[in-house]
Write a structure and sequence with these properties.
The protein has 4 helices and 6 strands. It is an alpha+beta fold. It has one domain (about 1-125, about 135-150): 2-Layer Sandwich (Beta-Lactamase), CATH 3.30.450. It has a 6-stranded antiparallel sheet, with helices on both faces. A hairpin with a 4-residue loop joins strand 4 and strand 5.
Length: about 150
């Protein structure tokens, strides 16, 4: 498991153990990865985070158009693997969890422990949010490479 925020590790590890999830990404709504487990390639992480953020944004917009509140989670079921996307609020802003799980567990179990993980993350999050450094074009590639190295330990 790799995490950019150390306070995320314990709730995420508990979720992985209890839910039997195969892969998980925690990210901001803009697709910035906060933590990941199970991915072996940075390209897969970047692709999954971008797609996950886009799916959540589009389903939230559909809910708004329909006059409904935000959807709790989006589940895509497959014959061997399934995927759940859930957005939630934290003191650090709105985040998204992308979870891939197999037939060894169920969507109900994953959702149950996902909700528990969200409560633990909200409780563990530092209350004071550091001011974000300005994103400058000349620093973007360096900052991206630094973040990827932290996530993959390279």
């Amino acid at each position: 498991m790799r995490a950019l925020e150390p306070w995320v590790v314990a709730p995420l590890q508990t979720f992985i153990t209890e839910s039997s999830a195969r892969l998980i990404l925690l990210m901001t709504t803009s697709g910035q990865v906060v933590a990941q487990h199970g991915f072996s390639r940075s390209l897969d992480v970047m692709t999954a985070s971008a797609l996950g953020a886009a799916i959540v944004a589009s389903t939230e917009e559909l809910a708004r158009i329909m006059g409904a509140s935000r959807f709790g989670a989006v589940v895509h079921g497959g014959s061997r693997q399934s995927c759940m996307l859930g957005a939630f609020g934290t003191p650090r802003g709105r985040w998204i969890g992308l979870v891939v799980f197999g037939s060894e567990t169920s969507v109900g179990i994953v959702q149950l422990f996902f909700d528990k993980m969200v409560e633990e993350l909200v409780g563990a999050a530092p209350k004071e949010q550091p001011l974000p450094a300005p994103v400058l074009a000349e620093n973007f590639e360096h900052d991206l490479n630094t973040s990827l190295k932290e996530l993959f330990g390279r």
